[in-house]
Write a structure and sequence with these properties.
Helices cover 13% and strands 29% of the residues of chain A. Chain A is of the alpha+beta class. A five-stranded mixed beta sheet of chain A has the order 5-4-13-8-9. The longest helix of chain A is centred in the first third of the chain and has 22 residues. The N terminus of chain A is likely disordered. Chain B has a single domain, classed as Orthogonal Bundle (Cytochrome Bc1 Complex, Chain D, domain 2), CATH 1.10.760.10. Chain B is 61% helix and 0% strand. Chain B has six helices and no strands. In chain B, helix 5 crosses helix 6. The longest helix of chain B is centred in the last third of the chain and has 15 residues. Chain B is globular, with a radius of gyration of 13 Å. The chains are: A alpha+beta (413), B mainly alpha (96). The interface between A and B is large, with 46 and 36 residues.
Chain lengths: 413, 96
């Protein structure tokens, strides 16, 4: 298989091309020569930029490889100009490297636990025929998206902007399945396990739980379809959890078991990982059974936005309308407005919102202006329907979560 | 050598798609004392780009904490006597 060396070739050619372009435009200043090579925003750790390259997982288009095993592949920002992120371009995130190919015909979902009075086991056909179908648009965003931009840097997958994707998900309500399993009022959490495993038994299995109230939310789905097609292997085939509004750590892929619990789940991935400092973020949803003295599990996404069609340190034509496009999202209240500044954040003008695809979807937006010759710093800022907005300074936390610092895109016209 | 062998064992035993392992084969950690031991101890659960990607952002304390997490939490089988060599290598070659 020669894909790896081709990927590396693309990276090197691209680097040369960009340097050549910078040279031909007569730009000698260092920052402009360091332009984004298409594998990550400037600001990622040097080692992350150097070790990343475009490569192709089976069934995917070339994505930005952050790690080979387990595969962690990021979507290039240019793919975010579509309202729904194509399945072939959708990011891939795993913690554990044992990833089985699952046969849908023999796959089973077990639902049980100490507060499920009528445990059951479902085949895919039974799941699909036994409960009303629901389809909704929702953004799937890795908790660690933009970790690579943390200052100071923190260890983990060094994601740029692309560990997210918007899709139309089809499945059944988790609450309908839990009702069938006889969930009782004593349920505190509902825990989920997928078919992926660690290569070494001693490694904590990736098990995640939701508070019972979120599991019973009518928008929390057990989904088998993504953008009108079966889930791609790398995105959880045959069935994954969809937890609209909450970060993707809860969206268990290759779902195989559901455990309705009267006690908090104590595994590593709940009790120690995916935690944020208490009281530092404008978060509404609490996860009370998992709260510790100083930390609490990450829950809903913070309000955020991204400019998707303008390259940082790009060169654009002056005195010609420039269309700036982007996306904005939040934890499920819906985006109220996006404001754009072309002078680094001094003056703000209203952006135009695109179609409303539902409150859990991202919202596309655009903004047009006639740039004067010279340098401009584009900044976008989203605000949601409960008034939560983005920050100008990073709220540092050791895992690099919830980075919603307004993005600054420098252009020359 | 040892790493190649380990990798082929992982691929033979595992369910992981071989395409990604082919890419992983091209990873070249920096030359330096301790490289061999890092390559054999740190490759069991994930590819070695986890090290490259996280550089140069950790100082000695940071790498000590990271290696400690791999042993105590993730279950890495690393001898107490090897830890010093591994941390030295990571700090020198991939530290800030």
């Amino acid at each position: 298989m020669s894909s790896a060396s081709e990927g590396a070739g693309v990276k090197n050619n691209r680097r040369r091309l960009i340097l050549a372009m910078a040279g031909s435009a007569g730009l000698s200043q260092a920052p402009w020569a360091l332009a984004d090579r298409g594998i990550g925003p400037a600001g990622l750790p040097e080692g992350a930029l150097d070790s990343s390259e475009y490569d192709t997982l089976p069934g995917k288009q070339p994505l930005i490889k952050r790690s080979w095993r387990p595969p962690n592949f990021e979507t290039p920002v240019r793919s975010f100009n579509d309202p729904y992120t194509p399945n072939e371009a959708f990011f891939v995130r795993y913690h554990l490297a044992g990833i089985p190919q699952i046969d849908a015909a023999t796959w089973r979902l077990r639902i049980g636990g100490d507060t499920a009075e009528t445990p059951l086991e479902l085949s895919l056909a039974e799941l699909q025929s036994g409960y009303p179908h629901v389809e909704l648009a929702a953004l799937c965003l890795c908790s660690g998206n933009r970790r690579g931009l943390s200052k100071p840097h923190v260890p983990g997958i060094q994601w740029g902007h692309g560990a997210m994707g918007n899709a139309l998900w089809k499945g059944v309500r988790l609450k309908d399945v839990l009702a069938k399993a006889g969930i009782t009022g004593r349920a505190v959490e509902v825990a989920f396990d997928g078919a992926d495993t660690a290569p070494i038994d001693a490694t904590p299995d990736f098990v995640k739980s939701l508070p019972a109230w979120k599991a019973m939310d009518e928008n929390t789905l057990i989904a088998w379809e993504m953008n009108g097609e079966p889930l791609p292997h790398w995105n959880g085939f045959p069935v994954r959890l969809v937890v609209p509004g909450w970060t993707a750590t809860y969206w268990m892929k290759h779902l195989t078991s559901i455990d309705v619990r009267s006690t908090p789940s104590a595994g590593f991935w709940m009790a120690q990982a995916y935690r944020i400092p208490k009281g530092r973020f404008p978060i509404v949803d609490r996860f009370v059974s998992q709260e510790a003295e100083t930390t609490t599990p990450i829950t809903e996404m913070v309000t955020n936005s991204l400019i998707t069609n303008i390259r940082d340190q790009g060169i654009y034509r002056a005195k010609t309308p420039l269309f700036v496009r982007g996306v904005a999202w939040d934890g499920g209240y819906g985006i109220d407005r996006v404001e754009v500044s072309i002078d680094g954040g001094r003056l703000w003008q209203a952006g135009v919102l695109g179609d409303d695809l539902g409150r859990f979807s991202w919202r596309q937006w655009s903004f047009a202006f006639n740039p004067e010759p010279g340098e401009h710093v584009l900044v976008a800022r989203a605000t949601n329907r409960i008034g939560a907005t983005q920050t100008f300074d990073l709220v540092f936390n050791p895992a690099g979560y919830h980075n919603n610092v307004v993005q600054r895109v420098r252009i020359r016209c | 050598m040892a790493r190649k062998l380990l990798l082929s064992l992982i691929v033979a035993a595992g369910t992981f798609a071989s395409v990604a392992s082919a890419g992983e084969d091209n990873i070249q950690l920096k030359e330096g004392p301790g490289r061999e031991i890092v390559e054999t101890r740190c490759v069991a659960c994930h590819s070695l780009d986890y090290i490259e990607m996280n550089s140069p952002i950790l100082d000695r304390k940071g790498w000590e904490a990271s290696v400690g997490k791999m042993v105590r939490i993730m279950g890495a089988r690393i001898d107490e006597s090897e830890v010093q060599t591994i941390v030295d290598y990571l700090t020198t070659q991939y530290g800030k």
